[in-house]
Amino acid sequence: MVFYFRQMQNDQLLKQIEFLKEIDKVKYIQRKTKLLNSDRNENDAEHSWHLAMMAIILSGHSNVPVDILKVVKMVLIHDIVEIDSGDIFIYDTVQSHSNTIQERLAAERIFGILPDEQAAEMIAIWEEFEEGITDEAKFARSMDRLEPLLQNVSNNGGTWAEFGVGFEKVYEKKKVIANGSEALWDYSEQLLNDSVESGILKKQNA
User: What is the tens place of the pLDDT at every residue in 17-29?
Assistant: First the structure.
């Protein structure tokens, strides 16, 4: 009985280590946005870490109290699927940014490396983030939309300028921030308006 228990523990550990080795690939997934005040592209691992810190520091601005541990889990794992599916630019006009078949298959493969109970938990958390319905998911998605806004403002328009993305499209994507935090949306909306004033974000219908 003791041998069987130890074997089960060993099997679990090997699966967990294999998963941790697999997600090292997140460090190689390049995003379109660049680091704050930098010309170097951010990778998914850096992005996820920054969102986790943002969630902890900014949680007091959430519209409602949230389970911050769950929020942190969401932002740390939400882009792991991009190991298989790749990073899809949020302003891509051809390919959907979320809820793709490729991402679903990636979630099942990558999280499926883990022991069954942990795999089920990770997939459930990933699904919750993608659906964006719960208070935790809304706040987590606010962080995901706020970080690149800060980056682009710091880089004189960043990806907005590089890919010719106009104010209207940026505004439409960023207003999701309000679902998690009206206070952060007020701040973000002011940043967008200031960006238009300074000329780093263009109104296409002006």
Answer: 999 999 999 999 9
Total-model pTM: 0.92
What is the three-state SS of the chain? CHHHHHHHHHHHHHHHHHHHHHHHHHHHCEEEEECCCCCCEEEHHHHHHHHHHHHHHHHHHCCCCCCHHHHHHHHHHCCCCHHHHCCCCCCCCCCCCCCCHHHHHHHHHHHCCCCHHHHHHHHHHHHHHHHCCCHHHHHHHHHHHHHHHHHHHHCCCHHHHHHCCCHHHHHHHHCCHHHHCHHHHHHHHHHHHHHHHHCCCCCCCC
